[in-house]
Design brief:
The longest helix is centred in the C-terminal third of the chain and has 28 residues. This protein has 2 domains: 193 residues, FAD/NAD(P)-binding domain, CATH 3.50.50; 88 residues, D-Amino Acid Oxidase, Chain A, domain 2. Strand 14 and strand 15 form a beta hairpin. The strands form 3 sheets. Strands 1, 2, 8, 9, 10, 11, 17 and 18 form an 8-stranded mixed sheet that branches. An 8-stranded mixed sheet has the order 6-5-13-14-15-12-16-19. Strands 3-7-4 form a 3-stranded antiparallel sheet. 37% of the residues lie in helices and 30% in strands. The protein is an alpha+beta fold. Bound molecules: flavin-adenine dinucleotide and 3,4-dihydroxybenzoic acid.
């Protein structure tokens, strides 16, 4: 079997890349180890940056997003028992959209299949060869047959635990954090219209939502936490404590989903090895506090789709040669922002009164200085694609 671009992984990066390439007349095959049902149900990110939404609109993927997505023009930072709003609309004239990652994935899969795209779910034993000049992706299909995909280039969009990054020896930069997030999805109507990031002496808590009926909530917990050791009642109780503020009530309801997510910062450089190009979580991870992971994956594949299209049409290698450096500039900006938000909002396990005073000072400065609030707002809503400070 032959295709121009072999794409490993059907997360937001792989699926959007396939869609963008199809729009430019470049064909691809997407290989995914999980089932369609699994990737469509996997609850993860919820915040779409302004440039992400603009791109999805530009490429015809925003019908449902525009109908069902929740537009937000600010967030609140909650600390010392008080609420402090960061007004994105006033500070930077833009906002964010709350729309579940699995909804983006559903929309992408529907669009690809509607356009006759080739998506293979439930494949196993994906292997890579010939990455210097003639890549071959081996895999076993859902029917158990071993197949080979000859391609011009391979896109490694298989997430942090994928196999494509192992095909070479990139330089790795990483940082782990002494906490994780316990996240729940609850059938409870949101009582507040925007996200709340709370710094409480017990630890961080985040108030988010998915729809007018569904609340999404997170608690900072120790990294080795077993989710089964937290009863629903304990979770609600702790959320109530950490999110407490005058005039705020938490609406409780049945817990539909719960899980624990580790937190790390990670970058692999460069993001290219011969004819292999990494994109999204395969190349970099951010802690979730800045809501950047999916947005970065989407920014990567926008650059990649353009570079590959030029290369495959004309043989011009300028775009593919610049791919890694171009993406890494945005990646490191997001790494810094995510690390900064994480450090400002989480409570380290060891009591550190000096660090606590620094955190509170930084929080007060962020909410009272227009310059500092603008820095947060500009990064949170997302720097325009193509702008690389
Ligand atoms: P993935 O979504 O991980 O997709 C990779 C795909 O490759 C998967 O489907 C996987 O099954 C498949 N795969 C793996 N190995 C193989 C293989 N060998 N062969 C074939 N396929 C393979 N980001 C935000 O932008 N905003 C947020 O608000 C946000 N909140 C988050 C909250 C949580 C709790 C978590 C866990 C993450 C959050 N993120 C957020 C991060 C975001 O979910 C990821 O950055 C995003 O999924 C990256 O997309 P991706 O396509 O690169 O990788
Ligand atoms: C959500 C996740 C995040 O990581 C974040 O920073 C904000 C919101 C969410 O799942 O809604």
């Amino acid at each position: 079997m032959r295709t121009q671009v072999g794409i490993v992984g059907a997360g937001p990066a792989g699926l959007l890349l396939s869609h963008l390439l199809a729009g430019a007349g470049v064909d691809s095959v997407v290989l995914e180890t999980r089932s369609r049902d699994y990737v469509e149900r996997r609850v993860r990110a919820g915040v779409l940056e302004h440039p992400t939404v603009e791109l999805l609109r530009e490429v015809g993927l925003a019908d449902r997003l525009d109908r069902e997505g929740m537009r937000h023009e600010g967030i609140s930072l909650r600390f010392d028992g008080g609420d402090h709003r960061i007004d994105f609309a006033d500070l930077v004239g833009k906002g964010i959209t709350v729309y579940g990652q699995q909804e983006v994935v559903k929309d992408l899969i529907a669009a690809r299949l509607g356009d006759g795209g080739d998506l293979r779910f439930e494949v196993t034993d994906v292997t890579l060869d010939g990455l210097a000049d003639a890549p071959v992706v081996g895999f076993t299909g859902a029917d158990g047959r071993r197949e080979e995909l000859q391609c011009d280039v391979v896109a490694g969009c298989d997430g942090f635990h994928g196999i494509t990054r192992d095909a070479y020896d990139p330089q790795m930069f990483d940082r782990t954090y002494p906490y994780a997030w316990l996240g729940i999805l609850a059938k409870a109507a949101p009582t507040h219209h925007e996200l709340v990031y709370a710094n409480h002496p017990h630890g961080f808590a985040l108030y988010s939502m998915r729809s007018p009926e569904i609340t999404r909530l997170y608690l900072q917990v120790p990294p080795d936490t077993d989710v089964n050791n937290w009863s629903d009642a304990q979770i609600w109780d702790e959320l109530g404590t950490r999110l407490a503020a005058r005039g705020f009530t938490l609406n409780e309801g049945p817990v539909l989903e719960k899980g624990v997510t580790g937190m790390r910062s990670f970058v692999a450089e460069p993001m290219r090895h011969g004819r292999l190009f990494l994109a999204g979580d395969a190349a970099h991870i951010v802690p979730p506090t800045g809501a950047k992971g999916m947005n970065l994956a989407i920014a990567d594949v926008r650059v990649l789709a353009e570079a590959l299209t030029t290369f495959l049409r004309s043989g011009d290698e300028t775009g593919i040669d610049g791919y890694s450096d171009t993406c890494l500039r945005r990646v490191w900006r997001a790494e810094h922002f995510s690390w900064w938000m994480t450090s400002m909002l989480h409570v380290p396990p060891e009591s550190d009164p000096f660090g606590r005073r620094l955190q509170l000072s930084q929080l007060r400065y962020t909410v009272t200085s227009r310059a500092a609030a603008t820095t947060l707002a500009e990064n949170y809503v997302g720097l325009p694609h193509g702008v690389s400070p």
